[in-house]
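Structure request: Restriction endonuclease type IV Mrr domain-containing protein, Pseudoalteromonas fuliginea.
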Amino acid sequence: MNRKKMLEINFDDSELTEMHPDEILNLITNNKELLLRIPIPLCYTMMDVAYSYLDASYVLETFAKSFGAKNYYTESSNGGRASFYYNIILRNFCSEKLRPYIIEFLCILSDNEYIDEDEKLFYYGNRNEFEATLGDIQLYFPEVIDLYFANVINGANNESGLEFFSEFSISSPEQKYGYWIGASYLNKKDKVLYSQSCWIASNNIELSELFNGNSLNHGVSIIPANLLVINSQGMVISENGAIQIAMGEVIQGIACIHELYPNKDDYTYHHLDSFNGSFFSKSEHSDDIELSNFWQENAEFELYVSEFEEFVIFKTKEASLVLFNINKPTHLKSQSFLNAMLTIGASFEDGVLSSPEIQLNWDLLDDELFEQLCCDIIYQNSKYDNTTIRKMGKSRSRDGGRDIEVYSKKLPNHEPKKFIFQCKLIKSKSSLNTSNIGSVSDVIDQFGPKGYGVICNRVIDSTLYDRLDGIKNTRDLEIDTWDSVKIERFIARRPHLRERYFKV
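Returned structure:
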């Protein structure tokens, strides 16, 4: 404990465990502001982590309900027993009212030698009642209890096995597929389910409402797509290109949808052979099922991809499955899919080449205007936080390799990443290759981004794709490339940009 701008109560402070309740009252009396630090301790198992989040949620929700504290912030630990802290500030509180809560939460989060066994049982009973009534109460901080559910589900999978789910198979069938009901939707008729990298939402929930409720409310747009599966590897194809997806997650998610929703007239019963998204095991029903037919019989859907390739949506008759675990395929992987498609006589959906109607006259732009266009492209890309865009001076006045800097948005299981973009306006008809891009590695070493992008008005040469793929793999770097085809399709959907930059 220490006194800076306000008194701090750290619930894993060893001094508090030896402090009499009257001393605690004296400590907090005559303070108008109090900083309470709720630890998430270092744990050995995911189940321990889960119950640490449950404890923290109970404490935070109690302070919000009883003392009107509606905001918190997190703070990393500088050693000790905690992984990090939830910090919440109380103002203008009654010390007498607060003291019993401090004692109770000390018991739950740490200990206090003056608390007897009957009191401990009473306090843990309060916490257990909170857990049992989660679907009936208002939650001020649903994101904290979501972390509890996530660790319960994944901890049970990794540490307890599928037998853990047998008792929940009727009341909570989604859990055996790795999903839980989002805390914000527990007391709502229409649910949204989360997993580590997917969402499932009832079709009664508009997609705009879904994304607004999950902090993805800036300019999200989706475009139709098609699914191509070759040798169990999935590729989502749209007019913007190709995205790799994990087919195990798709099958697992659609299986979950069909078990949860009542329209089962054409549904084939199944079991998962494990809890990792793989295909189906033999069961007592195996003689009645051709498991290879599951996909054809159970998976009628519409497919969409976000315009800026942040997620993929499988929309079935009952619900939508949103996948965030997607990747831009390497140039080599894309080429292998193209070769396979040619072999079987298939072709990509309309739009591999730009049509004359959307081609742009690049002679109208100079370097500075092209960089302004690049800024507009990034600004309207919902993958990036447009409040973080920085154009690095005039096009000829800066050090090479860093024309634009921006951070990506925070997504489920993905923290914001710093991106650096190079903008290349080529006046000739030649492609962009390694000789006119400079040393990408030097730029990365100098500025330390987690993502690197190239925006060019011409075709990008395969040698440059190969170099970028190599850097991506060796440095764990995300790559974002824009060539003339991609830019022209982007601007075709935004006539105001054509008017601004290409009006004759």
